[in-house]
Amino acid sequence: MVRQGSTQVNGGWSHWDQWIGPPCSATCGNLYKHVTRQRSCTAPPPHFGGSNCTGEDKETITRDCNLVHCPVDGLWAQWAQWNDPPCSWTCGGGSKNVLRQRLCTDPAPQYGGRECQGKAHESLSRSCNVHKCPVNGIWTTWGEWLQHKCSGECGSSSMIVTRSRTCTVQAPEYGGRTCPGDENQSSARNCNPKGCSASGAPQKTGDILILLILASLAVRV
């Protein structure tokens, strides 16, 4: 009951309290939390039949929290292909050191995260060009000259002499070159140097001496 002679006083809200809420659920990352604040219908409170405060005495909102980025640790990407350097030899079995690498980009370390653990490069030795090397042929020394039949029994006669060699000191192998030059040689040589008679027959040694004496006497006369 309203007391006669009293003036009604309608209720009024106090100031809102500070926002309060639980701590953030993590120390980093794009997170949020619910916070609330309150007020009371005490400034002034309703008196003598005055109306109560209108509206809500509590508010709840969502706020971001801990907006710092979380550390991101680095992870390795896939290994790249092995490189292909030239072989140390073109044949006969060589070797080469091959190399491959990987990058710390999957993801790269960020915001204080750790670098990738392990090696960024890897190398190993590989055999290469293991096929046989070409071997070029090498001649033997020339053989003895072989004499063939003289072309005549007297006078200016000749005969053919020949000699040969073989490509066998080292036979060509694995695509090597054969021996350069000729396998056989031939040459003409004089033979049967004694003179022939008027009939064309070979002269005897005595006949030749008589002719030489007669020729000498004829010169003296």
Structure description:
The chain has 221 residues and is mainly beta. The chain folds into three domains: 1-70, TSP-1 type 1 repeat, CATH 2.20.100; 72-133, Single Sheet (TSP-1 type 1 repeat); 146-220, no CATH class. The protein is 7% helix and 23% strand. The chain is built from one helix and seven strands, in the order E-E-E-E-E-E-E-H. It has one helix at 205-220, and strands at 31-38, 58-65, 94-101, 121-128, 146-147, 157-164, 184-191. The longest helix is centred in the C-terminal third of the chain and has 16 residues, at 205-220. The model is unreliable at 205-212 (pLDDT under 50).
Gap between N and C termini: 202 Å
Name the assembly state: single chain
Would you tell me the overall average pLDDT?
85
- Contiguous helical run count: 1
User: Structural class of the helix and strand makeup?
Assistant: mainly beta
Order of helices and strands: EEEEEEEH
Rg from Cα: 61 Å
Helix content: under 10%
Strand content: 15-25%
Per DSSP E runs of 2 or more residues, the count of β-strands stands at 7
Describe the main β-sheet briefly: 3 strands, antiparallel
Characterize this entry briefly.
This protein folds into three domains: 1-70, TSP-1 type 1 repeat (Single Sheet), CATH 2.20.100.10; 72-133, TSP-1 type 1 repeat, CATH 2.20.100.10; 146-220, no CATH class. The chain is 7% helix and 23% strand. The protein has one helix spanning 205-220, and strands at 31-38, 58-65, 94-101, 121-128, 146-147, 157-164, 184-191.
